[in-house]
Amino acid sequence: MIYLHYFAGLKEEAGKAEESLPWEDGTAADVLQWAKTSYPAFDFSAVQIAVNEEYVLETEPVKPGDHVAFIPPVSGG
């Protein structure tokens, strides 16, 4: 099991802030592909992925128990 966390527009699109996903083995890219399939209306083109509160590349391994966050771009001033 991994724990997915959604922020901003993706949170609205998913209709929830978090969910769990049965998981054996894979990478951040595999989790991203699952999310793209599950939430096709959301634009993932600029989304950053964090695993256990650290930004990662898509090649990062994701293991059971990990927390994966999808973080869209933010702006401020």
UniProtKB/TrEMBL annotation:
Keywords: Nucleotide-binding. One of its GO terms (biological process) is Mo-molybdopterin cofactor biosynthetic process. GO terms for cellular component: molybdopterin adenylyltransferase complex. One of its GO terms (molecular function) is nucleotide binding. Gene3D superfamilies: 3.10.20.30. The keyword Thylakoid does not apply. InterPro entries: Beta-grasp_dom_sf (IPR012675), MOCS2A (IPR044672), Mopterin_synth/thiamin_S_b (IPR016155), ThiS/MoaD-like (IPR003749). PANTHER family: MOLYBDOPTERIN SYNTHASE SULFUR CARRIER SUBUNIT. Belongs to the MoaD family. This is Molybdopterin synthase sulfur carrier subunit. It comes from Domibacillus iocasae. The lineage of its organism: Bacteria, Bacillati, Bacillota, Bacilli, Bacillales.
